[in-house]
Amino acid sequence: xxxxxxxxxxxxxxxxxxxxxxxxxxxxxxxxxxxxxxxxxxxxxxxxxxxxxxxxxxxxxxxxxxxxxxxxxxxxxxxxxxxxxxxxxxxxxxxxxxxxxxxxxxxxxxxxxxxxxxxxxxxxxxxxxxxxxxxxxxxxxxxxxxxxxxxxxxxxxxxxxxxxxxxxxxxxxxxxxxxxxxxxxxxxxxxxxxxxxxxxxxxxxxxxxxxxxxxxxxxxxxxxxxxxxxxxxxxxxxxxxxxxxxxxxxxxxxxxxxxxxxxxxxxxxxxxxxxxxxxxxxxxxxxxxxxxxxxxxxxxxxxxxxxxxxxxxxxxxxxxxxxxxxxxxxxx
Length: 332
What we know:
single chain, alpha+beta, transmembrane helix, DUF4349 domain-containing protein, membrane, transmembrane, DUF4349
């Protein structure tokens, strides 16, 4: 075998060797990822167990998201909202959102706030907030997210290890195809790592800062309160009358734009009906029932004939003569 033949054989084998090398690298990367995920997942939980033993129990490692709701009644809701913001700032928190509605007839003033305060000082902060007005309703909800937090930490640690290994493999890549494959895998891992990191940061923020929702309104009138004397009843009745008349005027004002076109449409329909009445239905002049001719008199009703005894029929003339002759005859 000459040298040219050997050279051609080497050229044919070189692509196959490169392909086998790429497949070997990808297989090793996948095994490293799976092994790193399993080993790192166990490694994340071990420090938590040790920390809990040092602190004296699992309660110290609990991750809890707290959400409170408070409803107050005050004569000046906006001023009370300002005081609530001051309480939250003194506790080390901040204001997420605030909505103020000044008092305008016929609605009363109100305010709505969403405060974020440190979880460690939540109880003391709630006591101060409830004392700002008349407490109408309050609630506190706590959600344990310890397992979710540990799972996120484990997945993030595994992805960070995978990204680090992919970067090392990219620095050692010898072909363009290997580099492209490694960059695609690195982009996928990095995107997943960024999403999990954002979830962990949001969860930690919810654990560190509790959410307090506040609703502040003006005190309402006592339901069912009746006037105490005659003049009080007169005032209540007069006020109700004014309210009724005002409401009726409002209804008429709303209906007026509709009544005018409806009346015009009804008049148009009546005019069209009268215009299209058939000519044969009119009666000619001089006919009975025509407006210029009086109606003919009504014929009298038949009277009842008095009942009389029926007379016997007259005998025939011949029979009468025979009867007279028989009466004049004398017996012999």
